[in-house]
Design brief:
5-stranded mixed β-sheet, Rossmann fold, 21% strand, Udp-n-acetylmuramoylalanyl-d-glutamate--2,6- Diaminopimelate Ligase, Chain: A, domain 1, 2 domains
């Protein structure tokens, strides 16, 4: 059984393209389909064994079990300086044929190929490979991902869908992501009503899930220009919330096992002593910390070091002050990757439970 190509686009960055693509690919694979994947236009890449591919391709290679071939799975990389080089001499580049050739190979061997868009709808326009243009080149039907809301959601959908209409590319449905759970019914009613007037199907709503927003220790360290000076092997520990060294409260210690202690070096010893005292007083058997960030200068006493080592706590040192570190951490955009297997599992579950998978297949069946 063969299906038309699917292009997963979005109204803006960080609204859930990768999460949705991941869930759809996994769900259809479970149904017995041989699913192909391509990130036709990438911006952030990795060099792996002399292969330069978009970073999302690595994740999907692991999920779908394919050997990465840049020409097939990541044909165009618009890295730093690429747009300037293209504008200086467009004749040096043949992006369109690279994308069409990749699609041709995948279409020959796969039941269904899912193409993941990049950034917002217009990304790539400078090199004539915007998301609508790519979808046109590969003769794909589009699923649009948008963040939950009503007015702003409709405004973004209206603006972005116009670019696909310009290319005469059909949007077969919309997935609304990160919807506040107690607003699901209202968003479904009003956005669904607007979509109905546009003859576009609402494929489902995905509730906001806090666990998908958990960063890793390594992500925190990069964001604050830090160095993991102890227990770097645990850099993939996840962080649920930040615990300020000066404001340690019992309710925070009891509610999470993945806290990041953020404290000045001179206050670290007293903060750890307070945590130890509270956990013993209230019979909390586990260590509530997942990692520590220390700012400023100072020494760490031996008892504190023993606690850090006993609980395998990665400790990050940064030259930022505490306020500067909090600001940097608050701006982290958390992405799914191979270091976050629980997010991969959660993404798949959310798609399977909330999206009308049969309706999508009915619309793209050949």
């Amino acid at each position: 059984m063969k299906f038309k190509n699917l292009h997963i686009s979005a109204t803006s960055q960080h609204v859930g393209k990768t999460t949705s693509t991941l869930g759809l690919a996994s769900a259809y694979r479970k149904l017995g389909l041989d699913v192909g994947y391509c990130k036709p236009v990438g911006q952030k890449f990795l060099d792996i064994e002399n292969l330069r591919v978009d970073k999302d391709t690595v994740l999907f290679a692991d999920l779908l079990g394919f050997e990465m071939v840049p020409e097939i799975h990541s044909p165009v990389i618009l890295g730093k300086g690429a747009t300037e080089r293209f504008l200086d001499d467009p004749t040096r580049y043949d992006f369109e044929n690279k994308i069409k050739d990749a699609a041709k190979i995948l279409n020959k061997n796969k039941d269904l190929t899912i193409f993941e868009g990049t950034g917002h709808t217009g990304v790539g326009s400078v090199a004539n490979v915007s998301n609508p243009r790519v979808a046109k080149l590969i003769n794909a039907n589009v699923i649009m991902i948008v963040e939950g809301g009503i007015g702003s959601t409709i405004d973004m959908l209206n603006m972005c869908s116009s670019l696909f209409r310009e290319q005469k590319v059909p949007i077969i449905g919309v997935i609304i992501n990160k919807v506040i759970p107690d607003k699901m019914d209202k968003v479904k009613h009003y956005v669904g009503k607007w979509l109905g007037n546009q003859n576009i199907d609402l494929l489902g709503l995905i509730p906001y899930d806090q666990t998908l927003a958990y960063p890793l220790i390594r992500t925190i360290s990069e964001a604050i220009d830090g160095t993991i000076i102890y227990n770097a092997d645990y850099a993939d520990n996840r962080i649920d919330n930040i615990l300020a060294g000066s404001l340690i409260e019992m309710k925070e210690l009891k509610s999470s096992e993945d806290l990041l202690l953020l404290v000045s070096t001179k206050s670290l010893n007293s903060a750890i002593n307070k945590i130890k005292w509270l956990t013993e007083l209230y019979n909390i058997s586990h260590c509530p910390l997942s990692g520590i960030v220390v700012t400023g200068q100072g020494n760490i006493d031996q008892k504190t070091m023993s606690y850090i080592e006993a609980n395998n706590l990665p400790l990050i040192r940064t030259d930022l002050d505490t306020y500067g570190a909090v600001l940097r951490i608050s701006k982290i955009e958390v992405k799914i990757n191979t270091s976050t297997p629980w997010k991969v599992k959660k993404a798949v579950t959310l798609i399977e439970e909330n999206i009308n998978l049969d309706l999508i297949l009915d619309k793209i069946r050949i």
